[in-house]
Design brief:
Two copies of one chain form a homodimer.
Chain A: E1 15-22, H1 25-35, H2 44-48, H3 59-74, E2 87-95, E3 104-116, E4 123-133, E5 139-150
Pfam families (chains A, B): MaoC_dehydratas
Organism (chains A, B): Actinomadura meridiana
Domain MaoC-like (chains A, B): 21-113
Chain lengths: 156, 156
């Protein structure tokens, strides 16, 4: 993959491989205790008594796992830049299937397109459709991340 | 506040106080290392060199803080129930202002309305607009959480 540095390098329709992450019971319960203390995110036995039939990851934990894969794979070379005026955020986060201990989640980012930033003409908002799929091929998460990248300078 | 047990108890337009949470540098960097390792989520000095001028929380960390306040305040009495067929998820997550160490964030949940579940007639999807505001009165986060609650049984 060539280096993705400016907004224009993210070609609409391209799909970027973000690699994989193996989920553990320890990760699920640590996140659950801190951010989403519902019984089925805390304890295997409580999970067994729920509709899920066991311990499952918080949806926020699953979304954050996608973010880690995205940041570590795509962002090191990129001109993603935050602003104190706020970030364009995330849309349509969907938790499609339970994530359980031992699941290996594979991530991708599909470039939906980009829009000029309304607040700063030297930036564009790149819309990424994120996916996480488990080893059985079942989609567990989709989301749309709006990321702010610098446009390629006219003299480069 | 009376006990909120069934979908019908969440009155459209009502606003529920979720209490407050004080953010620490340790929380910001722990979340950043694990889920969003961009320099300004990891280290005060790296933050100083960024547009943010210091360490700031990952937007996912801020959203998860809202979730913790929501779960611990509103859900203990509620009939929120997950399903292995997936969760209706989250929309319109907006990171409006940087969250820094020492910020005290106050949460609310505003009930936007509810819709019948398409997959299970005994459930409704309650749409909540979540807000987090810092001690200076600045909104730092908004989101829309779609939560699945059991409808009040006809005989109760």
């Amino acid at each position: 993959m060539s280096r993705l540095v400016y907004a224009e390098d993210y070609e609409t329709g391209s799909v970027h491989d973000l690699g994989s992450h193996k989920v553990t019971a320890e990760e699920i319960t640590a996140f659950g205790r801190t951010y989403d203390p519902q019984p089925y995110h805390l304890d295997e036995n409580a999970g067994k008594e729920s509709a899920f039939g066991g311990l499952i990851a918080s949806g926020w934990n699953t979304a954050a796992i996608w973010m880690r894969l995205y940041v570590t794979t795509l962002l090191p070379d990129a001109a993603a830049e935050g602003t104190v005026e706020g970030s364009p955020g995330v849309d349509e986060v969907r938790f499609l299937h339970p994530v359980r201990p031992g699941d290996v989640l594979h991530g991708t980012a599909e470039i939906l397109g980009s829009l000029p930033s309304l607040s700063a003409p030297e930036f564009r908002i790149v819309r990424n459709r994120g996916h996480l799929v488990n080893a059985g091929g079942t989609q567990v998460l989709t989301l749309v991340l709006n990321a702010r990248f610098r446009s390629r300078p006219k003299d480069s």
